[in-house]
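Colleagues,

For the teaching module next term, I've prepared a clean inverse folding example: a structure given as tokens, and then the sequence designed for it. I'd like students to try predicting residues themselves before seeing the answer, so please don't circulate the second half yet.
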């Protein structure tokens, strides 16, 4: 199975928090991906912290050690983003744009999203989730 890691999972893992570590350990032998959106969120968080260069090395090592491929936002992903956004707006259940782009990336690439944010993502129809 192939998995897309949500930002929260990566951040928790890098900070050694149990939930993120546990989630990642369960899928570590699978093919792992990261949306460029999640990459941006993690990079931004690192940039704002003390010892940013040390934390940057940890993040780079994490990506390399797990063989994580960064997925871009392309036209198919953008179209899926629009479809999901309109659907959720019609249901009066909006979601933040970054979360929508992450969900669209998972859907378009047929990936299961590993996240601790079920509340955010469970309303996206057709999105496969792994929150263990």
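(Answer key — instructors only)
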């Amino acid at each position: 199975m192939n998995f897309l890691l949500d930002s929260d999972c990566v951040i928790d893992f890098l900070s050694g928090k149990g939930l993120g570590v546990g989630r990642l350990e369960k899928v570590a032998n699978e093919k792992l991906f990261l949306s460029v959106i999640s990459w941006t969120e993690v990079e931004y968080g690192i940039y704002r912290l003390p010892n940013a260069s040390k934390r940057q090395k940890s993040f780079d090592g994490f990506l390399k050690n797990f063989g994580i491929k960064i997925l871009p936002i392309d036209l198919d992903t953008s179209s899926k983003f629009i479809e999901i956004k309109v659907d959720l707006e019609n249901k009066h259940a909006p979601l933040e744009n970054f979360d929508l782009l992450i969900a669209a990336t998972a859907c378009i690439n047929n990936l299961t999203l590993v996240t601790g944010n079920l509340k955010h993502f469970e309303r996206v129809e057709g999105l496969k989730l792994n929150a263990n």
